[in-house]
Pre-rRNA-processing protein RIX1
Amino acid sequence: MSAAPALTALTVLSLLTALPLPSPAALELLSTYAPLARPSALSSSHLSKWLNRLNASVSAREPAAAEMGAEVIRQDVEGHAASQYGKAWMGACLGSLSSAATPVDALPAFLDLVRALVAAAPYAPTFEREVVQPAMGKLAVAMSRLIERLVADGEWNALLPTMETVRALVSASPAPFRPAVNTIRPALTGLVLRTSAGAPAAIRGPAADTLALLHMCSGKAAAPATWGSDMKDALGGVAASISALAADAWEEEPPRTAPLPPSASTPGFPLDPLLRVPAAVDAIEGYTEIALSLLSVTSQRPVPIPLAQVVSTSLRLLNLTLDTPTAAHISPQHHAAMVASLPRLWASGLLLLATAATAAGDHLVPHLASVLEHTVYLLERVPASMSESRLKLFHFHSILLEVFPPAILPLEYTTRLLRFSLSIMGSLLDTRPQSSSTITPQHRSKGKKRARGAEDALVAGLEGRASRPPSQEVVDIVLAALELTRQLHTAPMLPAALLTFSIRLHLSLHLALASRPALVSHGLLTSAVDDVLEEAAHLEAGGTARDVRALLVSVLPSTSKRNMAFDALLHPALPPMARPLPPLAQLHMFAPESDEEKKVRRELGFGGGDRDQDDDDEDDDEAMAVDEPVSFVQPAVVPVVTPVVPAVVMPVMAPVAPVQSAPAPFSVPVVVPAPAPVAAPIAAPVAAAEPAVPSVPFMSAPSSKPSSASVAEAAPVAAAPAPAADGDSDGEAIPDLDSGSEDEDEDDE
């Protein structure tokens, strides 16, 4: 079935002419097909007829017609509608915005039409000179009065498009708004500080953005000084709010620089601590929002940034932690309110530092050491329950590493950041020794202990104590940690053991995530881990002791982008030579770790594999042997000679007590009773090879056939311990005394 042909502009115009105005269908046709993009290509009679109808509806101050008019102005690249009907539409907008009888619901449509007319003015010089510029003074007065009226009435939904229109008008022509600044600033400052009754938090950002543009109304020459004055007032307000918050409660450290004095418009704070804490926190967030907007706004001329004051104010917020000493007379309610406000204070400090780093750039380099001293300490000290604060700290350090290369950061802080990030990733790995509880080795006494561990794991699963997949908050933190480690891997002078362990851990995550598809955000985690490993493949070999590129290239999944990045690594720098393949020792990610890597791993809290488990088993068995001593009989040593293996010393002891003995590779200890006094030494106990002793699985053949006399003498002796062997045939007595450690067996050999 063929697709329906697209509607032409003339067809859409015919449909618009047939529809009544205003009509929702007409607005949908306009926004979907844009028929008025080239008015010169349309029929002039049909176009004039429809625009005259639309002009009549807009002049009648119908909101739906104003929306259609704004859409027509944006589509018309030739400026036909603005030049012909812009003057009438601007007059209708001024009348609607200035009249108090205009419904609040109708204001956004006329505000949108004003923004469209002002944006189209630079492309139509005649329209700008004759219509827009003469109306800017009236628009400034109307907008200032409209803001006052909406704030007083609490019409927050209509206030958002009003502030957007003010920002557009000030950016286009700031001079007409100079008399209205003294009216707009107090109203918007009250919204930012939330002193206006019922002001929502969502309106704080747009109000701060509008305040940050008001310095442009002072003129090009005076705008930088006005910007600096506004910035100092904002920092002074933050400092005064911190002092009010910490008064009679926290014992602050002295600030790095003297705080700026607050402005005369800074509001006062209540004397009651339970009322003063939320008011001070709201003021801190409000003044911080103003400072952020001032640092983010685009200015026409360079502005003086008080960078030392910005850093000092931010670090003063970050210094307030759970470890900050408090006054002895503070009430529990007051203390609880202050502790609850800590995440908001940290967020304000981090936002201020991150925005200053983005705006000032290299000017912040002298302050990096002091900044990292506070932020890294706070990241290490924040409890795991404060997941949102920990996530913001990770994001802050990622922004810092995007602005500044890791090479200029102090090595101490990059190392601490990498170690903490690696410790966070352990939440995705099951640190419990599952292999030791599910895999039971053959011919090993500690297999029964591990079988009991498997039963414990089953019971834990039935009781609800089994491990659960991480939550979305944990996954978000791990994703932020992965992004941070990707940036930290390029830091020079990192310890080689730490960098190698980091690549090992990311490789373990890559292999573990493939078998755990039920995780939250599994695709994001897999992509983040692969990106880290891809960046690690481009690292030089000096930091990892051996080249890991061949391993990472073979492990990572193949994509077009990744193949393009790896082509430079795989392309030979020299012509191919006849040489063998690299040895397996170069795959050092699967080689035994060094002592330094093992130390790093244990310091970060990662449990090892079977080796660490075996070490723990040895310690437990040694403790058991000390707690339950057994009386041993000194065995007599009898040499046994075989033709294939060298002479092996085999213990022979009396049957009074079982003896703990480690098996040798080529022979097995045989428990026999103490021999009777015999003139000649026993060459080989033939009776021990008979099935009378079922606990002996293997016995080497003797080198020479024994004589009949020796057989006759040895037969009664070998038959004596048969009852004892039957009593211990279940194998329970000996494994209880056996240490179960292979390392001790190897030492005995």
Summary: Residues 178 and 218 are 7 Å apart (CA to CA).
